[in-house]
Amino acid sequence: MSNSVRGSRQASTPLSLSGGLIVACAASALLTLPARAQDASGATRRLALFVGNDSGGDGTRPLLYAKDDARRLYEVMTRLGGVRREDALLVLDGDSHDVDRALSELDRRARESHAQNERAALFFFYSGHAKDGALRLGSSAVPLEALKVRLAQSPADIRVAVFDACRSGSLTRTKGVRHAPAFEVETDASRQVKGLVILTSSAADEDSQESDAIGASYFSYYLATGLLGGADQGGDGRVSLSEAYAFAYERTVASTADSAAGAQHPTYSFDLAGNGDLVLTDTASRREGVRLPASATAGTWYLVDGRGVVVAEVVKGGAERMVAVPPGAYTVKLRLPDRLKLARLDVREGQVTELDEARLRDAHFSDDPVKGTGLTALYAKHWSLSATGGLQAVFDAPTTAGGYFPSSPYVGLEGTLHNFFGRGFGLGLDGALGSTQGVLNTALLKELAYRYGVAAVGVSIVHEWGQDDALVPFLGARLALQLMTREFTDAALPKQSYGTTSPGLVAGLKWRVTRSVSLMGRARVHYLLYTIDEQKSLGWADLGLVLDYELRD
Amino acid sequence: MRTTTLLPLFVLCACGGSWSNKDLEFVSTLPSRDALSSNLPQPKAGSPLTGVSTRHDGLNVGDPSQAYARTRKASADFNSILDFLLGVVEKVRALPPSARTADSRTWGPYSDPNNPGFRFRLTITQLDLTHYRWAIESLPQTGDAFPIVTGAFEATASLLEGKGAMTVHVKEFRDRLKVSPDLARLDQIAIGYVTDSDPRLSRLEFTVAPGAVSGLSSIGYTAREKSDGSGAMRFLFTTLDPNVTELEIGSVWLHSGAGVAVMTVKKGSYAGATAVECWDEGFVVTYAAESWPGGAVSGKQSDCVKVAGL
User: Fold this and answer.
1) Contact yes or no for A529 and B18 at CB 8 A
2) Which chain B residues touch A528 with a CB distance below 8 Å?
3) Cα–Cα distance, B184 to B213 (Å, whole number)
């Protein structure tokens, strides 16, 4: 499967944690889940903001999975992380103002919790582009320095910020960052933690990468799958921040080691006081997912969803392991040196499905259920060829009432170079022929029968939304060269022709019948300037059906 | 304001061509060969008719009709003259005009291949809603243009139907342009036509230059044709027979081909005498009667077809 990088050209000026005391190695996680831990100061209310933006504006290439990363973490943290849905804000393809507003709202809620003698924890997650010292949200930017100050000054007692972006390690490198998965956890905490933890997906000089096989960025995927239980090394059904980070670190480095962009090393930094166990998710209390019994073969087990995308993985040793995936149908895969072992299983709501290894069947590597999202290929430049037919109507009086041009059916061929101008923006070339018979009638001429012909070639720039969806709306601009002729039954009358370039708009809806074959309904509206007898602004529209075949690798 | 708003669209629109309803209106005022020609039914291949050379003394029922043969030749001559006169018009009509104004269209000027140094042009001018005037003029390299053909048309039912006339001004150009010897003997050719009635009418009249043809100042053809395919033609026919030097022949025919000719001797020793000849769909005589001395009668007059309205 293809990888893509979360491109950023240059690391920004290193940022430092503002004004905080570094408590190296005392950064044991000190946050407990509200449902399970209360102390003298009361419960902890978990607040969370998940930000995902595929677009980084000028100088960046659109990402494929940033929004999906944010959605994935949102689902994990609201299912297993003790974050109530109403306290989880999801900002997808938003700008800096949206992030600012969301943070302000969460600050307000943190203060509200304090007023009710309740502790507050803020979980901030960002997946997207970072460039020149700022998170890039579309055409807007959030300076990293300012964001870090903002998080440090948040009224929440503890703030956990996760950045999955290129060179995001610049956020941590001036504060004793280590490329090592090491939080030291003190489990018998006596003091509640306060402060800021920052996790980044890559070092300050590294790109962060995405993968079609997992439909996510590596770091976010491993963080999420770790939170589902994959990182629960203690086997207690609770995944602490240190466990999640250690798992995400190890798996991200391993998965990217051989990639073209090079290994990607997550980083962390912290500015914490107090101690305790910072538990991020509790897979045991949910009691929903897949259990790998202690007797199951040791190794890395994968859970693959119906799309062929890996949604979770767990490295099993001798102990029982739980993966708290949401309800759904999965294929469980174990990769052996010479073959795969596969089994289908269903996870129902509120139930734990235990893997029965006896049900596994052997499969050849060519039957690997992991197909990936295919988005990289989908969004790659590729051609499609189309056959089209429709009806073109001119915005003019009927020729029987003195109008100039009749309506006409047409057939045509088209070629489109998808994603030629960036993701979703394609270049189209088309040609069509139409013909009909009509009657011309003017005030001074009685009915003159004629045969009408039209030939057109056009070039268009069209944007498709959601190219991976079954229904793909599109809209664009087109410039057509149109040549029309009419030949009268009365041979004494001259054959006439008219040629014009005609700008217009094109819009429609594509329905993917298969991965490569689509049917489209399309409308085009064009301006038509007539200049012979008079200067007259006309127009034409056509409604067409298009059968499209995409040529992909 | 509107123009300003649409300016970017105009820039994107490179337009051109000949698509014009008004052009069609203008060219429809020109006479067309199809509208003016004589459409006499023609014998099928293998017919025994071989034209006027079949004449022999005495005409009997069952013989090939001489009157039809003469009418056929006259019809062919009439159409040939139309072809000649309207040839330029027909060619120009197939082209888009070179210049357009609100009330005129101009084709050319084009080089005149038969007269180096001269060009010609056709101009049609709309005088009012229903009246048009047109002219083919020759343009010498120096000096004023002079008319070759002029015409006028009054539309009644539509521009395809009305009353028209055209005049070939032979006298004006025969000394300046190359012309055939036959044309050089004429001063003028005039055509009048009516296409909004049934039958439609076409009349050709040649005005002979003084002294060019002894004793003759004009020669004419008149052709009528009804929508049901019946037609008529009146013309002069000359022979070498001193008794019948010149015949005026008026022929009428049905769509089937059967017809009747009434011939009046205009010049010759039998001047004033008449003859009637009827023929059937096979163009053979069904009745013949000559009133001149020694003239014969063959067949029954009741075997003649009746052609009404012409």
Assistant:
1) no
2) 13
3) 11
With CA atoms as reference, report the closest residue to A481 among A465, A459, A462. Answer: A459
The residue written with tokens 């100061």 in the block is A41
C-alpha–C-alpha distance, residues A496 and B16, integer Å = 11
Closest alpha carbon to B112 in B78, B144, B136:
B136
Residue A260: Cβ-neighbour burial (10 angstroms; 0-12, 13-18, 19+): exposed
Nearest Cα to A545, choosing from A507, A511, A519?
Answer: A519
Asked if the bond preceding B109 is cis, omega within 30° of 0, the reply is yes
Which DSSP helix (H) or strand (E) runs through A238? strand A238-240
Q: Which residues of B touch A532 (CB under 8 A)?
A: 17-20, 23, 100
CA B236 vs. chain centroid, Å, equals 15
The Cα–Cα gap between A404 and B58 comes to 64
Name residue A49's beta-bridge partners: A89, A124
Q: What's the angle, vertex CA A69, arms to CA A145 and CA A56, rounded to 5?
A: 50
- Residue A283 three-state SS: helix
Find the residue in B nearest to A527 (Cα): B9
Report, as ranges of residue numbers, the positions in chain B whose pLDDT lies below 50: 1-3, 50-56
The pLDDT tens digits of the residues spanning B10-24 come to 555 677 899 999 999
Q: Do A444 and B18 make contact, defined as CB atoms within 8 angstroms?
A: no
* Peptide bond just before B199 cis, omega within 30 deg: yes
Q: Is the pTM of this model over 0.90?
A: no
**pLDDT tens digits, residue range A146-199?**
998 999 899 999 899 999 987 766 666 433 333 433 333 333 333 466 788 889
Q: Each residue of A405-459: pLDDT tens digit?
A: 999 999 999 999 999 988 889 999 999 999 999 999 887 888 899 999 999 999 9
Asked if residue A181 lies in contact with residue A254, where contact means CB atoms within 8 angstroms, the answer is no
Q: Which of A30, A29, A32 is nearest to A183 (CA)?
A: A29
> How far does B222 lie from chain A, in Å, by closest CA?
23
Residues of A with CB under 8 A from a CB of B: 402, 404-405, 440, 442, 444-446, 448, 479, 484, 486, 488, 492-503, 527-533, 537
pLDDT at A18: 27
Q: Determine the distance from the C-alpha atom of residue B156 to the mean position of all C-alpha atoms in its chain, rounded to a whole number.
A: 21
Average pLDDT of span A509-533: 94
Closest-CA residue in chain A for B32?
A492
- How far is B237 from chain A, CA to nearest CA, in Å? 32
Nearest-Cα residue of chain B relative to residue A533: B20
